[in-house]
Write a structure and sequence with these properties.
Length: about 250
Amino acid sequence: MRIPRTGLASMHGRAITGARRINILFQAGVSMLFLLWGGASSAKAQEIQFGIDFTTVVPTGDFSKNVTNNGYGVGVQFLRSFGKKPLLLGVDAAFATYGSDEHTEPISATIPELRVKVQTNNNITLTHLVFRAQPRTGKVRPYADALVGFKYLYTNTTILNDSSGEELASNKNLSDLVFSYGFGGGVQVRLSRVGRSGDIALDTRVRYLRGSRADYLKEGSIRRENGSVFFDVLSSRTDVVTASIGITFRY
């Protein structure tokens, strides 16, 4: 779908309406999360996990027909157990860039000797509540996850000073927030002990995350013709598979 830059207003309004609905659902989920944590606070032998990882986002289904390259980024997780039960509840967030473009051009037609760098990035963030089933003991601990949350797809264009790299201006070209849910699994392998009860583990996982329909851009979607800017807006479900490897601290 080819539309001029000024034609994005109606899409933006629709995205805001959807974002409000999802925000209400997410706030309700977060409230439930804190209630559950509060109810579990009196239990003994609780476990807290905090992790950071490198994440690859692989488009699938209709999303893969439009976006053919993977996204790469980082993720973080924070989970807490239900007493001695082999269950944990927490939050998982990841950010990845699935396409970018960079070029240098004069800052204006009247000042051709002053050049700036124009950088465009297509990004996706994934934020979910995580329900995890995992053994509480053992050097090797496999686990299964169920997730519910949202995906946020957005494209930014930034103008940078070509010599210093200083940001001069930035604009969000298009964004959309959609519902997301899925499942996955992984395994944690203890690397070393930390203190009396903590440890560090190598953490690897794979997840399949279904996503509602979204409007988004990809690498090459922004074109310039005769002094005007056009956006080739794409639309599809946003299903992805994520693969992650990182370090998790457990205590």
